[in-house]
């Protein structure tokens, strides 16, 4: 009987838990194998991108002269969006036998590396040169494959081509629509070195450098000068180096950006990045229908007004039937409103318009100068208030009704400023409705929302979506911005404490993604 019992247990063992034990052993072995792989300094690749961790990072630095590393988080949407472009750039650099390679580090798993390199947001890209891990260079290029390749290539070789004779420099000037040449009597001097720094950063332009005396004479120069050569507008624009202050890299970058643009730009998919990266404080826009010959002729006077404002105001033509159709809602316009003029102050997105459009060059100049002098009030968008704006728990505000509701001294008003297309706004919509339902019977609390793409306020500028502001009861027109976790309980705690939250340890919240940019007229903006 004892023998039968032992034999039965042997047969029944797997059914009674033996298989679980075997699975645990297998899992343990696989875990040990994975740990062994992580501890190894072997460098694996995924789509031509080196997969890096703390045990192979030093080896990667030693084996590659230039190494551009992306520190990412697996859950980060921006990282996921970058991944295909990063892989494509890695393949292009490898196919060109470049000394540069691309690598990636999961910063959420490799916390030691994330701490060492001060990673606080995702994705963060850093360039390591010649095995030096103490002073990596922050990536400043565009987040697309072409931008990545250009940025790395500019740092892999000389940032400017040495031009030694008149034939070479003439061919260089005529090689592209726009080139930059630095004329320096000493290429080892501080001014020339600053020029090389600018050339390394401005990867979308082609740079050359010259020091031969005959080349100074050929282009009418007597001292160190940076020259911008173009096949449009002015043929040659000179930026002399100040003999006292030297060459300021930030100022030269700004000047090159401003003068590399055409005097009048057309807003297209290809030019939009140039227009917004130029950092010109005001944009003067001519909205027209390019299929109308009568409207096309308005460009002549528009161009005539542009020259005196170069660097201060960028003149842009917007075709309301082309690429410009996407930005019309941002101005509260339709194609039928063309032709018309608008001036935008870029720092706060304030829009200005003439009382009645006048397209003469003198009228355009006078209007712009009046805006610059602070003599014209901004034109504020406002939708019409819905008939049922105050019948639902969430009150619907528009520009015309905002003041009377938000600054009612008898109410504590909590307002969500949103964009209909913003995914973060959509994600918190249910929580906002629930909050309003919770407080709908409170006479002293109002939960409201305003579509900031259709409504603007004179003294409140919304820079991102969603933005939440609390307007407490009482005199003084006070406003408190809510910056904590966006859920019903935290909102409620904020309201019950009179617009403040008790001090608590910071909580990691994946929903704390950067807000949608407030300046974009559409999701792809």
Automatic annotation (TrEMBL):
Disulfide bonds join 76-79, 422-425. Keywords: Chaperone, Disulfide bond, Endoplasmic reticulum, Isomerase, Redox-active center, Repeat, Signal. NCBIfam families: ER_PDI_fam. InterPro entries: Prot_disulphide_isomerase, Thioredoxin-like_sf, Thioredoxin_CS, Thioredoxin_domain. Residues 19-40, 496-525 are annotated as: Disordered. It comes from Phainopepla nitens (Phainopepla). One of its GO terms (molecular function) is protein disulfide isomerase activity. This is protein disulfide-isomerase. Residues 7-157, 371-500 form the Thioredoxin domain. The keyword Hydrolase does not apply.
